[in-house]
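USER: I would love a firmer grasp of how sequence relates to backbone shape in proteins. This is the protein in question:
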Amino acid sequence: MPSPQPAAAPAAPAAPLPAEGTSSRPGTDSSRRLLAPEAEARPLTLWGSSSMSSEGGAAATPLAVRIHEHLALAAAPAVVHAYGVGATRSEHTLLMRGLDTPQLRRLGDPAPQTGAVRVSLDSDLSPVGTLQIPGDLAGVPGVLDGRDHAWHFTPDDPAQPLTDGTFRSALADVAAGSRQVLWVGKNNILDVSAVLEHTQRLWDAAAEPAHDTLVLGQWPTPHDPVGSSTAEAVAAVNEEQERRYGEHFLDLGGLLTSDEGLCCPPLAPLRLLEQATTQEALAQQIVPAALRAPDDIHLNGWGNLAVSWAIVRRMRELGWL
């Protein structure tokens, strides 16, 4: 009888085959931009007054909606510089941007502790709001301060002596090479020619003017009813800027006073067109109360949310995102 044979050893497992290549990449476009940013993500600079600083954005929504924060999330990892300052006019933005370089004259002795000295500007531009501009006076670095209804220049080093001379804003260097969003001129909208001129100068200051700027249109408040001088000025500025800048102009007035705009994704849950107050506002061609802050001159959180959505959508259309 033949002796039993040992059982055959099981075959060695085959080496795993390499996975076939795939054209898809893990994650989403946003996560890939955040975790593996492009080497040269261009910064974005926001210029304007209180609307650009999202004043009123804490009203009506559970959390405050600030336009610059939404744009920072959308543009990440690009840096967003937010230079919206309440009460400023378009000429103040020129000063901040470094396009106006006035001569400053000292009007007194420097303060003992800070070195701050009151100054006058040869441009006769009046100080406003909380405006503070880093820069240099005749080569001495410091801050030009427009608070307290007077101009003061405070040197970074209180011991540094000051002389009369030219002031240059340091924000010009910060904004150099960046794309920009402009929302300027509402506080001096009645001077249509000045608003258009100043916006054009800001436009021309971009590295590539034809590609690097988005101009935001003004929107009508209850203080700008049909037939008023301010309503006519708003319409004139918006119409001319749309003609000049084409797809680089964003008609926010149209967004916030049209049936289509009031049904845009961020506003759809509000069902605005079903509300009597909305129809009353549209009859006057002004922004509905549901999107206005209590002061009736700024947007509330919902209004800012719609504006943020519209800006991001246009930035995508322009290839900025």
